Amino acid sequence: MESSVLIKFGQRIRTLRKARKLTQKQLAVITGFHYNYIGMVERGERDLRLTNIELFASAFDMSLSELFNI
Amino acid sequence: MESSVLIKFGQRIRTLRKARKLTQKQLAVITGFHYNYIGMVERGERDLRLTNIELFASAFDMSLSELFNI
Questions:
Q1: What's B42's domain CATH number?
Q2: CA A32 to chain CA centroid, nearest Å
Q3: What are the chain B neighbours of A50 within 8 Å (beta carbons)?
Q4: Number of folded domains that form chain A
Q5: Number of Cβ pairs < 8 A linking chain A and chain B
Q6: Is B54 in contact with A5 (Cβ distance < 8 A)?
């Protein structure tokens, strides 16, 4: 499951979350995901579907292109 | 299953494929997907996982950020 792109994406989510001073639980509330899922995403353990990736982009008020501008 | 982001992504894939004068079958060979899957993606019928999105980016020699620069 773990691959380079998943690791990079997870690190990106963690960086953006911390820059906004949000806990995983707070980001979970914003996105509607369970906070365990947030943790798995940040560790690169989930191969997210596009509609879920979009929910993270929306939570950070970014376009998908900006979200992937790693 | 169909949502705005999937429709937009599918149109993007179709546009990029046609700009390169590739058939769905040719893009299938490049990506390793079945050509039926390419058609479903282009119609916004598949909610792709990130690792599969990356295969399309690689096929078009683009970063993920460029691929989503719709």
A1: 1.10.260.40
A2: 12
A3: 5-6, 9, 47-50, 53
A4: 1
A5: 50
A6: yes
ipTM of the complex: 0.93
- Asked whether residue B70 is assigned to any structural domain, the reply reads no
Query: Does residue A68 lie in a domain region?
Result: no
Beta-carbon separation of A5 and B65 below 8 A: no
- What is the arithmetic mean of pLDDT over A22-50? 97
Smallest CA–CA distance, residue A48 to chain B, in Å, is 5
**What does the block give as tokens for A17?**
């979350």
Which range marks the domain in which residue B36 is found? 4-63
Report residue A38 as tokens. Answer: 């947030």
Q: Is residue A26 part of a domain?
A: yes
- Nearest CB among A48, A50, A65 relative to B69 is that of A65
Give Cα separations from B19 to A69, B10, B13, B15, B27 (angstroms): 24, 14, 10, 6, 12
pLDDT(B1) > 60: no
pLDDT, tens digit (0-9, with 9 covering 90-100), for B14-38: 999 999 999 999 999 999 999 999 9
